[in-house]
Amino acid sequence: MLLPSAPLLCLVLITVSSNHAIAIKKEKRPPQTLSRGWGDDITWVQTYEEGLFHAHKSNKPLMVIHHLEECQYCQALKKEFAQNEEIQEMAQNDFIMLNLMHETTDKNLSPDGQYVPRIMFVDPSLTVRADITGKYSNRLYTYEPQDLPVLIENMKKALRLIQSEL
């Protein structure tokens, strides 16, 4: 019996000649979810445009996480982000969530460069909140695993700004 999280194996037969065949085991991975490991209980939108639509419609801020699979800093942040109960709860209940492994056409999402990891907030009026920054002056929108308290405060700030400005 296979467990749901276990990779599936399939056999591929390759014919070498008319009377010989070799069996090669090939791993088939389960389908990738939109969470990409950032939080499986969070409802993730698929595109930036979809995120903007839902943010405007629901009056919730959009949180955009730019990352790359092969980036060790992204992987470290993702691990801590996914394990942090407060972040997960806010992400599930108070935000429209999007994680991207490519850049968008909106240059407002890269005000100081196209680096990863980078987390930006967009309010329901569809304004990119460049004023919600992390603690690094050379990369304003990056967070390291030990910076989760700063990220939590910035998530709360994004929520407060909606109440006070919109």
Q: How many helical stretches?
A: 4
| Rg (CA only) | 20 Å
Report how far the terminal alpha carbons are from each other. 53 Å
Which percent range describes the beta-strand content? 15-25%
Biggest beta sheet summary: 3 strands, mixed
Extract low-pLDDT stretches: 1-17, 26-31
Widest sheet, order of strands: 4-3-5
Give the total of beta strands: 5
Principal-axis shape equals: globular
Helicity range: 25-40%
H and E string: EEHEHHEEH
Judged by helices, strands and strand pairing, the structural class is: alpha+beta
What is the topological layout?
Blueprint (H helix, E strand, L loop, with lengths): L7 E10 L2 E9 L19 H11 L3 E5 L5 H12 L1 H10 L1 E5 L17 E5 L25 H18 L1
Parallel strand pairs: 3-4
Antiparallel strand pairs: 1-2, 3-5
